[in-house]
Amino acid sequence: MLEQIAEIAISLLILLGGAFALIGSWGLVRLPSLMTRLHGPTKATTLGVGGTLIASMVYFPVYEGHFSAHELLIALFLFIAAPITANMIAKAHLHRQGNGIDPNPADDIREGLPEPRIWATFRKP
């Protein structure tokens, strides 16, 4: 009985993880600008990989009889590193563009962004 419940939970987590990874990858390809494309891999794909790792964390204790912390460590690293990486990419993009930003018709930003604050971009006053 426990194995059947675990099998259903593992299957659902893998399907959910695969769906999130697919949606995140599709967003990475289809969204128009760099700033909007950051959402695909940092949010949806991170949840997709997290779901797959949680499924692996359930599988090994139930079917193999031992717990391994590898999946937990990978998930923690991923959930910590993805937002930091996205923040650094966004800041580098803002610095590269100067005061402007790549035009995105969906944003209604044509003339560029307003002057960024000092704390947000490490510019000297």
How would you describe this structure to a colleague?
The protein has 125 residues and is an all-alpha fold. Helices cover 73% and strands 0% of the residues. The protein contains five helices and no strands. Helix 1 packs antiparallel against helix 3 and helix 3 runs antiparallel to helix 4. The protein is elongated and about 55 Å long. The protein starts with a helix and ends with a helix. The model has no long low-confidence stretch (mean pLDDT 81).
Which stretches of 5+ consecutive residues score pLDDT under 50? none
- Mean of pLDDT: 81
Distance from first to last alpha carbon: 66 Å
How is the main sheet built?
A: none
Shape: elongated
The helical percent reads: over 70%
% residues in beta strands: under 5%
Along the chain, the helix and strand elements come as HHHHH
Number of strands: 0
Tell me briefly what this model is.
With 125 residues, this protein is an all-alpha fold. It has five helices and no strands.
Observed structural traits:
125 residues; 0% strand; mainly alpha; elongated; 73% helix
Fold blueprint:
Blueprint: H1 2-30, H2 34-37, H3 39-64, H4 70-97, H5 118-121
Helix pairs in contact: 1-3, 3-4
